[in-house]
Amino acid sequence: MNPGPIYVYKCPNCSNLITKMSLLSGNTFGAKQFSDGKQVARMLPEFPNLTKCKKCNTIFWLNKLKEIGSYRWGEENSKWAKADSAEFLTIEEYFIAITKGVAENKGEELFIRQHLWWVYNDRIRNGQKIFNDKNDEMRWKKNLIELLNLLNRQNIFRRILNLPNKSAVNDKIMKAEIYRNLGDFENCIRIIQSIDNQGMNWLKVQFVKECERKNRWVIEF
To answer: Domain check: are 53 and 131 in the same one?
Structure first.
């Protein structure tokens, strides 16, 4: 892994300083791949794009801001010493982002809802219970249903615009996994079996196996 510059931004609401790391290069050696599409790679980490100001609690997209400066990783820079590091949102903060309309289009809403799904699944990845209570479970379920709706709309646009098949395959895998999480094993199997790609046969077998076991939860491949 070769770290890139650390970029500095200003909160669009209060001008508090926020930094975000970057990579010049990385690799996926030893990476973990999960059935919800998340990859955890120590040598290729993901850095936040949607984050929250620690001073005023404003949630915003870093890629919509112009960086005000940068410095090299490991370099001491007194000018940015008090800047906060950009962090990923929590479950509650993702829900707030949805409620406050931080997503300006369906693509951004899909991004938020997918990452919210992943944060719930992180509880399982970390050996915790996925739900704190019934209300927590209801909110999780509603998010997955909305995520499915967004994927269905996206699939229609992909067909209209004749976008690459790879994107459609990824959407099918995501939809199959959501149905499995919801306990709809029949629809999961139907969708995963509809993927016409021999290179994906190993994945199809694993999905069907988990459905036959009535396992609803995220797995590591």
So the answer is: no
Of the candidates 93, 87, 82, 89, the residue with the CA atom closest to the CA atom of residue 17: 82
Range of the domain at 121: 91-212
C-alpha span between 219 and 221 (Å, rounded): 6
pLDDT at 134: 98
User: For 41, which DSSP code?
Assistant: -
Weakly modelled stretches of the chain, pLDDT under 70: 155-166
Q: Which of 59, 54, 154, 58 is nearest to 114 (CA)?
A: 154
The answer to whether position 217 is within a domain reads: no
pTM of the model: 0.92
In the prediction, which pLDDT does 221 show?
A: 94
DSSP annotation of 220: B
The residue type at 203: L
Residues 116 and 203 in one domain: yes
CA 109 to CA 61: how far, in whole Å? 12
